[in-house]
Amino acid sequence: MSLVTALIYRRRLPVVGRLVQELLALYGMEVPAAVEIGPGLTVYHRGFGTVLHPYVTLGAHVTLYNGVTIGRADPWVPQEESGMERIVVEDDVCLCAGAKVVCKEGVLTIGRGTIVGANAVLTQSTGPGEIWAGVPARRVGHRRATAVVPAARR
């Protein structure tokens, strides 16, 4: 487990949580304590520039590269008035460098095993095992069934 990943998992500790948040900020990461994170998170390149909204849920074995942003598509609207409820990133998802996942209304779900390509801007939910790329992101492929390993087999 990398130092950054270890810090992310410790950001909720009662005594040192605030210090951990500041250490993550030195790496250019913003991961609020409210973000729910499953086991096996992998963060590459120290996650420089990664920002997660508090209403984000990351499943098991999610991979984040540097510059990933997961948040609201309407930041100018007060949080109480925003239609965004939550962004759910299911198990085994890979968000490549610079990927942006933004939600304006309801719950946006990234399906299990999905890959969001570098610098893609995803504004809609995806199915399992899909590959998304572009601005705005569109489905460009589908992962082979063998590429997504069930969590029970690990």
Automatic annotation (TrEMBL):
EC no. given is 2.3.1.30
**What GO molecular functions are on record for this protein?**
serine O-acetyltransferase activity
Q: Which UniProt keywords apply?
A: Acyltransferase, Transferase
Which residues lie in coiled coils? none
- InterPro entries to which the protein is assigned, alphabetical: Trimer_LpxA-like_sf (IPR011004)
Protein's UniProt keywords contain Transferase: yes
The entry's protein name is Serine O-acetyltransferase
